[in-house]
Predict the structure.
Amino acid sequence: MKDKTIKVGIAGAGFMGGTHAENYLMLPNVELYALAEQNQHKQKEFLNQYKVKKIYDDVFEMINDEDIDVVDICLPTPLHAKTAVAALHKNKNVLLEKPVALNLEDALLIKEAACQSSGKFMVAHVLRFWPEYLTVRQVINGYVEGSKIREVFATRFNELPLWSDGTWIMSEDKSGGIIVDLMIHDIDYILWNWGEVKRVFCNSISNGQNFPIQALAILEMKNGTVAYIEGGYLNPKGCGLSTQMKLYAENTLIETQPLKKTIKLTRTDNNTLEIPVSGNDGYFEEINYFIDCVRNNRQVKVITTDDAIESLKVCLSLKKSLKENRWIQL
């Protein structure tokens, strides 16, 4: 596949489907070839914008298209397992939007199919490719030792997710709720940098429809680091997404500064250092990495299937903590 044009079929023309489509267009020798989408209006919009050659009403018909090399799944989470397993059984290369699934049973079915398939498989945990978070990781490894990070504070706030088709994200049964759909970004990043979790606790505030709109999770890591992750759908309409991260090492405070696009280090002697954040958009880097693995037959290493399942396990433990109001051992 090294010299051929890689043909991509996207499943789902929602926000993430469009985001992924934009980035495929920027890659050489990659053709945005097909779309699977049931909504006729979204089909027309996608076709007008991206000029794909084929439109399918049924995602499984698209999966059976022998011309397609990559199936990019941007469907609501309850459809992940059935769609990913079908594509992997056809030996397609599969990029699956996070989370891997809503439950461990489905996640393990996907893992089994991925192990048996000749296609590449990756779950799109984008913070592992995001320049700001990559710079923090480099700072941890270059300026302070990761094992000496005592506490991590991460926040992720967005508007109420009314933009999702039929507001499916606001259904706990369909999206997994605020922990599985939103906070999993930072949970996965914490696991990537600090390893295994010892125990977790979670609390939340819900709206009048009993939908959690703010949650605070505590992760005690086996290496002694404690992570506090706060997520919420509290930003006013038009504000979009806002994030922040602070890390406390023994002698240094590390802070992300999104508006300045720098990482600030403040030492106990009051000396400060600002490190610029550079690099391409995380979605581009994520998709570029996966296509490179496909084209050059490289093993997917940055985010493995087991990594994605482990992040889901922590999220499900946090949901259990929320329900039972107690610490949950992992």
In short: The longest strand covers residues 197-206. The two ends are 42 Å apart (CA to CA). The chain has a mean pLDDT of 93.
